[in-house]
Design a protein that fits this description.
Length: 200
């Protein structure tokens, strides 16, 4: 855990507090325990969870600073990434987690209760269903997602959830530039545009 604690400061801007460290330790323990019964994530070792899940989630802070009390929706969150790590760092956020797989949504609810996280909703729905709900459409400052779908399709899921001036963040791999080009038409139709691609 010491490497993660040190590396996390690159993205948080300050050392993790003791309660934050404890929260990540509990998160890791619960995830590994649930993974023995359910296939929540292919990454099962502690070091992999810390680097490929926790730290990767915190890289969002490179473009999401400053965060205070914004309303954020995390679509296709899986076992809570990147939304719950962001909430641990910024407890004032109002967070909605969207996950259609029942066992993963169940884990997120369990973790929210275990960590006593406030202002967190877990929706066991598909991304396209959430965008049709009046209390979620055009309501969010940030809509974020990891490897849910290609960027053109992801844009159609996320952009309708944003309020005017809201932003979408998609964590992508090596094909990010190609996906960005392919999404230009979809973004234009949705009244959005690509601001930047940030390498982490």
């Amino acid at each position: 855990m010491s490497t993660f604690i040190t590396e996390s400061q690159k993205y948080t801007g300050s050392p993790l507090t003791e309660p934050q460290q404890k929260a990540f330790e509990i998160y890791e323990t619960e995830l590994m325990s649930w993974n023995e019964k359910f296939n929540l994530t292919a990454i099962r070792d502690a070091e992999g969870i810390r680097i490929k899940h926790f730290l990767d989630s915190l890289t969002c802070l490179q473009v999401m600073k400053p965060l205070h009390h914004e309303r954020i929706i995390d679509v296709g969150t899986g076992a809570g990434f990147p939304g719950i790590p962001l909430k641990i760092i910024h407890p004032g956020l109002k967070l909605t987690l969207v996950e259609s797989v029942g066992k993963k949504a169940g884990f997120c609810k369990h973790l929210v209760e275990t960590l006593h996280l406030e202002n967190v909703d877990v929706l066991p729905l598909r991304a396209e269903e959430v965008g049709r709900l009046p209390n979620h459409r055009a309501q969010y400052d940030w809509a974020i997602a990891r490897a849910v779908a290609s960027l053109p399709i992801l844009s159609e899921y996320l952009v309708p959830l944003l309020k005017i001036g809201g932003r979408m963040l998609a964590q992508k791999g090596e094909n990010a530039h190609a996906e960005a080009q392919a999404s230009e038409h979809a973004l234009k139709l949705l009244g959005a545009h690509l601001e930047r691609i940030e390498k982490v």
